[in-house]
Amino acid sequence: MEPSNGDYIVVKAKDQGVHVIGLTRGQDTKFHHTEKLDRGEILIAQFTDHTSAIKIRGRATVLTKYGTLETDS
């Protein structure tokens, strides 16, 4: 298996129970992975051949190569 060179994002939870959900590529978009973060926890996620989108539920700071984003409550 060759390593994927997809973009990374960093998600830092500002509250308890922030959900980070990976969505698949292809004709039908489906959830394929979910992580639950507690306040202060950080997740580094990567876009891959299987992951085309990442959905975030809850208050979090998201760092990307395009800048820093804050989710709304």
Automatic annotation (TrEMBL):
Record-annotated Tryptophan RNA-binding attenuator protein domain positions: 5-72
Keywords, in A-Z order: RNA-binding, Transcription, Transcription regulation
A Pfam family it matches: TrpBP
GO biological process: one example: regulation of DNA-templated transcription
GO molecular function: RNA binding
Protein family according to the UniProt entry: Belongs to the MtrB family.
Subunit-level organization: Oligomer of 11 identical subunits arranged in doughnut-like structure.
NCBIfam families: PRK13251.1 (NF009724)
Protein name according to UniProt: Transcription attenuation protein MtrB
